[in-house]
Amino acid sequence: MNYFYAALTVFFIVYVLTPILIKLANKIDFLDKPTKRKKQEKAVPLLGGVGFYIAFFCGCFIFIRPLEKEVIHILIASLLIFGIGIIDDWYKTKGKEFGVLPRLIIQIVAAIIIYYGGIAFKGYTDPFRNEYIMLPKEISFILTITWILGVTTVINWSDGVDGLAGTLSSIAGTTLFIVALAKNQTDSAMMSILLVGSLIGFLKYNKYPAKIYMGDSGANFTGFILAIIALDGAFKQATVISIGIPILVLGVPIFDNIYVVIKRALKGKPIYAADASQIHHRLLATGLKPKQVVVFISLISICLSLSSIILLLLKL
Known about the structure:
- This protein is mainly alpha-helical.
- It is 71% helix and 4% strand.
- The protein is built from twelve helices and four strands; from the N terminus they run αββαααββαααααααα.
- Helix 3 packs antiparallel against helix 8, helix 6 runs antiparallel to helix 7 and helix 6 runs parallel beside helix 8.
- The protein is globular.
């Protein structure tokens, strides 16, 4: 019941706070305005991430007891991710582009904070000898930073259709919650359900046609937290099977954006250059409506998540 109360609390916070943020964004002109690349019909408030960041933050202080070192490191690092995202969003409201390098530096710093907080890909179980192999610190560091940066980026890149990033993240968060419960990892389970409850509250206003966007601040924060939950949960004492669980859970944005990166590289384009390569853009180009695109991609994500739960049951 504690998880239910936690989800309900953050849902209520976001549900009440988001209309206030919509009014505030309109008042201070913190709006995502139509451009040649963006096909939205009107300017849309860009402060959605603020609501579920505040809700998640409050939920951690209320429902995670005691606040251990790992959780404190997560809150500090996520503040950096959220803060640089807000700056990026502010630039967008002015019709400008914030530099990739400052964002990347802050994301790396935040990922390092998580690593030194004790959340890392530390090793794996040899399936032939059934022996846990500790990775060298250098490899553990590189894998951890790469995973966090990768998931943070792919969730951000999936935020291209109303409700899509929030829905995919909710599906992933729910699956990671089930995995954490099965492994009796209470903090990971609580963070998962806090994130899911917050996102569901936000989706009420973000579904098509969106009244508010989560912005880079919200998308980066969401991806960052999902990456950490996977590291602190499914990747702990990783076996061949359990390594596949978070990859399947986040399979749609991961595999789609691997395709996007390869395509851009082959064309000689910068990896971070915005284009219409993502799956949602390709589906929209076929004539599907935004709601149909979200449903189609979400069904794929649900199938992959169910596959990951089957893997978990096989492991158990």
